[in-house]
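Let us begin with a simple case.
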Amino acid sequence: MNNLAQTYQSQGKWKEAQSIQAQVLEMRNRILGVDHPDTLSSMNNLAYAFQSQGKWEEAEPVHVQALNMQTKILGPEHPDTLTSMNNLAYTFKSQGKWKEAELMHMQVLDM
């Protein structure tokens, strides 16, 4: 299902991709658990589907949750954690939250 969502994203079918990403996240939560790296990846994929549609307010809490969990589970210097920090910073910037974006980018650079 994740591959289908990515195919939709490649085609610019963001609503379809978002729907499938939400289903994949729910399934991975249920089957693998919330702490599994694949579940965390699905969180980021769903947030990306939101941000690709300009749904910044919906993307932000998903990015925050993914980042918090990745920091806890993978550690603050893990590449996936750093990518999530960058994604969240981009989401902040896109909402005009310049200070939050700057601070997040600085944290990435400090790692």
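The second case is a distinct protein. As before, the sequence precedes its structure tokens.
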Amino acid sequence: MQFHDCFVNMAARVKKPAIPNRSVRGYDVIDLVKAAIAKSCPGVVSCADVIVMATRDAVAASKGGRYSVQTGRRDGSVSLAKNVNLPGPSISVENSAAIFNSKGISTEDMVHLLGGVDLDQGGSSLAIVGEPTSEIVDNSFYKQIVILRVLRIDQALALNELTNDTTNKVAISSNDYFLTKFQHAMVKLGAVEVLTGTQGEIRKSCRAINKVNRMGLWRNFLLAFLSRIMV
């Protein structure tokens, strides 16, 4: 889910209705967490922060270790399907790397991140032949790639010159090595095009942007206008 959220245009962060996001699981959990937090701290914790922290806890619960995350994100004030730019399962390694790189994430980090996407299975291109999907965060994904047990872009990671060294390195290394790399990449993912300060909004519901207070906007505009002409 964090992967999906971070690849949405920053003004539209936390975008649920878009087609690429409809298969992602866990939105009901996010709604429950958001509602519980809002009871104690209304208008303080954003949906973007809830997703990042929930992802961290899900990784920990899946034996992926616990890592620190930054908070203070704000939610987008726009919610449009056209702002969703997710790499699909049929995308080439080169194009996938270009999309990740455009977000400030290296190709090496992209490889490390894809090892954890199969936990969600919503946006994953993972298709292990004859093997169950892993329910824990570990480096088994890469071992399957190396022995040609996966399909589509996942398999291409082991064959493409942009990613084969990183893939093979993780496959032959200890699981602790992968977890360290994965956790670092997740922190970087959580820092992609974040909104802070007065940008965006703190959504009341993670399913939609807040309703616009037109009278409040008009009042603020009028005050700003008057302050300029009275100087």
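The chain has ten helices and no strands. The chain has a mean pLDDT of 77.
Keep these points in mind for the review questions at the end of the chapter.
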